[in-house]
């Protein structure tokens, strides 16, 4: 490295690792010891591929006891259509461990559901039913060697009433093994609260003024307060939640009466399991339904009759699980999956991504063990719904993993993210107690910038921002290849919208998307944290860029200078324009008509401030919130210009090729077509009736949005 230019240490370096396989005892394969061709041969390419469904039942915890015997003799029954398998049973164990595997040949599978029952063995009569878990066979992931085994995960058992009974778990392993994880299947739950009837207030002399509060897990949303006092309020408001399969939470609705500004009165309540709601794939209307609320009696004299349902408030809902949207759990700038929730809407994959996580070099010591610096490093890769975690290399600053993973690619305009972390849960730290896994660095690779069928072997710098500044914490050595399965299909995708059509036909607001993305991140982190070894919350949040929308002066300056470098010429030209009217004081332009009193108080505050500390903190948080949105807009403006730059600089070779071919045909068409005809056709197209216009983005717009930008390189 040239010491006069320290920036070279932050650049990607080409490497030449020896990839592939060798015959034992030094023999050669393919004429040259190590495979040197562009296509690495699989170990299993001389036999037919066979598919089996493997079900590993490992352990359960907190199983309920029999009320008669006071104990539990549990066993597990795995049922797939007409095929059944049973584990051994244990006597008097509430936390049994089986660790048994069942295999079902794919060609003999005749059911769409896999049912796992936990039963209590009885000496007399039928075995007692403790709970079950049901898996949709269409959602079972496929493991392709050399992928690591799927990480086991906790699942809540449901009893006959659909309530939580206990928990069953996967393999109990150490937190150093490599594993493959699958993100939970996420749905948007749309609850349209239409109206309620027969709402009564505790004060019979006054009509109620009510609102509806809806809750799914930790997500709580409310309708607006009905503007009038009435026993039959009307709202017609949509409340949007994120839910994950298998559905563990319920939709809890409460109708509350606003007695005073500081007091709410519970009118009625109902809990609804999510599986009862219709799953729709498009924007067709969903049938509405009436539900009776559990109404509790008023007054002390009613006593034990509070739970009687002789007369009940009714609520009118139109609820559905939206299968036509893609539930965003990551930043759209670095999105790795764009498929809708419903598998029926998925297209065929257009390629395969193979990644070899080889090693890391020169890692910084992240903790102290026995008085000296140490790092227990592992690597996490995320693309689509599939996460992988390499094994942990203990006490090494130059760990070697040499693990290979594959992903199906459904869209080339996506990004794979890889992060390196220090495992702080192995013990031996000088600091007492387990801490968070420390981030060492992150790498992003946009697939559209890769040439197909080419093996890339590169060393990426691992960079992290710390309060003390930018630090290089090491280098990550990777080998990867993007193989195209259908070139025609891939080129066709460049003219398609980036997200499923429901995002354009019935779009969400910006604030809704931000909130839903945050909730989806929390759900993914929670579910992946149940696996063994767990993908901990701090790891998932770092990989999903949970704080990418937060304001920072650094990001704002970076986005500003991105724009300056793009539009410096346009800025100078804009000074030539002259306004048509003399300037005047515009109250609307100045936002002086709708100003909040607190904003005025802040504007006329002294500098430095003379306000109390709590007010200053509140205003600072508000400033960060507003500035974060401005920062996002500025970054989006810079991204548009960079996309145009990438188009003419061959950053995405396929996109530039498509653009050149289009320009060639357009030039020929314009040459042979009279200009008047072109103008006429353009006018008719742009002035066409709204009936002939679509909410879907046009092909040129979709093509432009798919172009890469320099945002991929932003820390």
From TrEMBL:
The keyword Protein transport does not apply. Residues 34-155, 168-291, 329-460 form the C2 domain. InterPro entries: C2_dom, C2_domain_sf, C2B_MCTP_PRT_plant, C2C_MCTP_PRT_plant, C2D_MCTP_PRT_plant, MCTP_C, QUIRKY-like. The chain crosses the membrane at residues 658-687. One of its GO terms (cellular component) is membrane. Keywords: Calcium, Membrane, Repeat, Transmembrane, Transmembrane helix. Pfam families: C2, PRT_C. SMART domains: C2. It is found in: Membrane. It is a multi-pass membrane protein. Its main location: membrane. Gene3D superfamilies: C2 domain (2.60.40.150). PANTHER family: FT-INTERACTING PROTEIN 1, PHOSPHORIBOSYLANTHRANILATE TRANSFERASE ISOFORM 1. This is FT-interacting protein 1. It comes from Sesamum calycinum.
